[in-house]
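In this supplementary section we document a worked example of the pipeline. Step one takes a protein sequence of length 179 as its only input; no multiple sequence alignment statistics are reported here. Step two produces a three-dimensional model, which step three serialises into structure tokens for compact storage. The input and output of this example are shown verbatim.
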Amino acid sequence: ERMEDIPLLAGHFVSRLNEHLEEAEESFKEINHILETIRFGKDQYRFSIARNPEKQRLLSAISSAVEVRDLEGTLFSALKSDEERESIERLFTDVLTHDLDDPAVRELCDYRQYFVYDIRIRHTDSLDGRTGKALESLLSRVLREKSGGETQTPYYVAIAASFFRFYKDAPGAIRLVLF
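The serialised model returned by step three reads:
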């Protein structure tokens, strides 16, 4: 690459990464919307996706960088602070200077690594005495307390909701999933 192309390439890379981050959050919203109407026994499930706090500095820089509105602006001119500029430069330098098969580069390029995931279980048969709302638990916290079948159900829910989301707009698609 020519040196003058690097800011353009970096801007494109960061913009695409941000698009994937936003698409992932939107996908989880759609899946959760589907799951709002479905009960599995006495439980309801909801997927939790949160931006990884360990990557907060980089995520903030990515968000700032994509705020470039005019075509004259560049990725680096949109960054609000030296800290953000340094985060993006480090990201892009790591990607450019290492082999693409390097696990660290793969992690940097994989938008899924920028999130922390969990499954919320709403126990509709147990109410909180204070609020009167159904009690909730996180799968990550109760995983060891549940039986084998109880721990498998959330994963089946995840797979089924994903298939539903994927096939809902495909006319004529086969909608049979075997577990």
